[in-house]
What we know:
The protein is α/β, with parallel strands linked by helices. Helix content is 34%, strand content 24%. Strands 1, 2, 3, 4, 5, 6, 7, 8 and 9 form a 9-stranded mixed β-sheet that branches. Helix 1 packs parallel to helix 6. The radius of gyration is 16 Å and the shape is globular.
Amino acid sequence: MEIATPVGPAEVTLDDTADPAFLLVMTHGSNGGVDAPDLLAVRDEALRLGGAVARVLQPFRVAGRRAPGPAARQDEAWLTVVSALRERFGGVPLIQCGRSNGARVACRTALEAGARGVIALAFPLHPPGRPERSRADELRGAGVEVVVVNGDRDPFGVPDPADATRVHVLPGERHDLCKAPSGVAAVVADWLRRWSREAGLNPPRVVIKKN
Length: 211
């Protein structure tokens, strides 16, 4: 499905369920897409737990660009997409998930979007070789629970445990978190499981809609 935003259309791939326990909205990094191995692994875990999952290809990638542009414009587009999805799914708990630059968007917009939490995959703490340009304030300012999953060999750095609710560092992983995507899913599974419990539902049968 396509959703119009102030900076151009976004493309959403929706994996729906009957009576979802929660809605997980996911997005990519600056030079990536919604089929990144770690995103797909987390998607599969969310579906198993009875959530609905929307993977968002942001407008700048739909337009073929690698640079996301100003943060304010990117956040504005993201909030437009999330608002449209929330209208579709009603009052189920919203979880935002992003990898790399997408993790920054998810953190910056969490409160305004009404998210209950954020999954930050490969959060880029600083540009490679520039630790003085820390982005830790985006984690600390999210205003909701943030679960970070980074690799210990990530050139963008690893957040400090004090800067998020949970920080999991996976040995041998780099920024792409593609060595063992199932390990990424296992890290977030326990945290995601609470939303299924809180909803008082058993995970429903998954019906995947091809887009």
